[in-house]
Design goal:
With 179 residues, the protein is α+β, with helices and mostly antiparallel strands. Helices cover 45% and strands 20% of the residues. It has a domain of 104 residues. The termini are far apart.
Length: 179
């Protein structure tokens, strides 16, 4: 059978389309195999414990050192809490009906319960801006120095005790006039 004019062009287009389709199918199958191979080797960081054996502050510091991203779940009886972490820093927290730093303070007070870390990508705004060290220091000050849960008094630079403390620190530094 001899093809003429438009029939030859149509047949050539059909052959080119079939060849392109087969190449596309082969490439897509190959891509799926590559994706499956990558997924098979993807691992997630797992961390869990009991607050009777590991206090929460130590668990958080461990996650900070590893620059972990995910959610630390906390279960204390019927109460549940969550610490949302990004690059090893707490960016948000929920416990009972509270959120933010007060929720972290409540969780740090717990002596029993279980926790586990769920490694996941976090996409949410930063609610807590302080470092865990700053939060822990504030929690410790509230817990130890303030009776009845009142916020501890802060020294101002106009306070004579603050000025003498500041001067004693300045005198002990290398290069100070009295050192």
């Amino acid at each position: 059978m001899i093809m003429t004019g438009h029939d030859g062009i149509a047949a050539g287009g059909l052959m080119a389309g079939l060849i392109l389709g087969m190449v596309a199918v082969i490439l897509l199958r190959r891509r799926r195999v590559v994706l499956r191979t990558e997924q098979q080797f993807a691992t997630r960081f797992m961390y869990s414990g009991n607050l009777g054996q590991t206090n929460l502050l130590d668990a958080i510091q461990f996650l900070e050192l590893g620059n972990r991203e995910g959610i630390l779940h906390l279960y204390a009886g019927p109460d549940k809490g969550y610490l949302v972490m990004l690059d090893g820093r707490i960016i948000d927290a929920f416990f009972r009906d509270g959120w933010g730093k007060p929720a972290v303070f409540q969780m740090l007070d717990l002596e029993s319960g279980d926790f586990y870390f769920e490694s996941r990508i976090i996409r949410q705004p930063r609610i807590i801006g302080e470092s865990m060290m700053d939060i822990a220091l504030e929690w410790d000050a509230l817990r130890n120095d303030a009776p009845g849960g009142e916020e501890p008094a802060r020294m101002s630079d106009e306070d004579p005790d603050f000025q003498s403390f500041h001067e004693s620190i300045a005198d002990s530094l290398p290069g100070s006039p009295d050192a």
